[in-house]
Design brief:
By secondary structure, the protein is mainly α. The protein has one domain. It has three helices and no strands. It is elongated, with a radius of gyration of 15 Å. The two termini are 23 Å apart.
Length: 70
């Protein structure tokens, strides 16, 4: 499992996770939408922590600049 997220991508994911948690509390943490937002926040934090997004792999995307050695 190689990293396919750049540092900027990882920071954006953390910001989205924080916004999702705040949104979950705003709509009610035990409501259906609140729980969905907590799940979104968890996924964003985990993918940011490990630097790997399974959806990027599925679609063949990567925001991580690969170093080319000659």
């Amino acid at each position: 499992m190689s990293k396919n997220e750049s540092n900027a991508d990882r920071i954006i994911r953390v910001v989205i996770a924080i916004a999702a948690v705040l949104g979950a509390f705003a709509v009610g943490a035990s409501s259906v939408l609140g729980i969905i937002l907590f799940v979104v926040a968890a996924v964003m934090l985990v993918t940011a922590a490990v630097g790997f997004c399974p959806l990027y792999r599925l679609f063949g995307l990567s925001t991580n600049k690969k170093k080319v050695t000659v």
